[in-house]
Amino acid sequence: MTDESAETSGTNRRTFLKRASIAAAVPTAAAVLGATLPGTAFAAGPAAGLPDYAPVPSGSFGPALNEDGYFVGQIKGNLYWVTDGSYQAMFLTTRDGVVLVDAPPTIGHNLKRAIDKVTEANGRPSTVTHLVYSHSHADHIGAASIFGKDVTIVGHGETRRLLRLDGDVNRPAPSVTFTDRYTLRVGGETLELAHHGANHSPDNIFIYAPAYATLMVVDVIYPGWVPFRNLAVSVDIPAWIKAHDIAMKYPWTTLVGGHLGRLGVRADGDLQKQYVNDLMASTRAASASVDPTPYFEKYGPTGNGWAITKTYFDAVTEEAARPIIEKYIGLLGGADVFTYDNAFTMYESLRIDAGELGPFGIKP
């Protein structure tokens, strides 16, 4: 590929991502207005059969993206954040260079553009000297390689182990690791890193900037939105739920959640805790109220055990999700998109983690 074609390809991709972030709001606006917006066209094909969802609350959205498809803003002092509307990163400008936390591939080289823009304005060095990994997942650190081999990468020891197993050249393993806590000091700035056990992933850490009362913890709290499907596809659901309480014990005023388009405030943490608690209570109530008998009678004689569990579990999930969707539409984005998936995962966790087995308990 020539330099010209590579640049064209990168420009086209940035243009596509920006248009995609804008287009995501078009169906919502059209539904509210009851008409097709001027200048929009919808091609026939697979999209014609896609479902409609409730409008996203206006408070769920973050700031508008620039022409390159990203937004960079100051949190406070020398601490900044970057988003493409889907993912987020955070960085500190110091007198010795930049400390970057996470490198999401969908933001990619826009991370460099954002850092250059900020450091040109504040007169600090633009070189990324340190890169902190929140955890090992590629969707959050898959652009790490663009910062070269001289950057010092900091992460949990489990992150190093997992990345060495993965062998992904775009995610070099950390050279500096820790087990429980680590204080990173660079050029007069400080980040406090802590591992409080598994939650979303085995290695997911809390990154706190004490001078700026800002906490970054990824894939736990989703400001303005319900959690991603299946309770953030977390490896340990009880620990993921507990991570909300751990996060709220930090004295932060600003939260960088790693996803979507805006920062969080304390009320966002309280609201998601309420959503999770309501979902748990609704799931317990559904498990107690849905009669398993018809499912055993229908599929038991055929010997189709999977049909029993699928239909019964689906019935419990639907019963659990319905009141939660009704309550949180208008409060959290995607309440009708992922609450069913979240209810199913909550039900499974209550069964296998909490031992609330219902009709699958100890046989009398």
TrEMBL record:
Protein name as catalogued: MBL fold metallo-hydrolase
InterPro entries according to UniProt: Metallo-B-lactamas, NDM-1-like, RibonucZ/Hydroxyglut_hydro, TAT_signal
Metallo-beta-lactamase domain sequence ranges: 86-259
Parts of the chain that traverse the membrane: none
SUPFAM superfamilies associated with the record: Metallo-hydrolase/oxidoreductase (SSF56281)
PROSITE patterns: TAT
Short name of one Pfam family: Lactamase_B
Protein's organism: Streptomyces dengpaensis
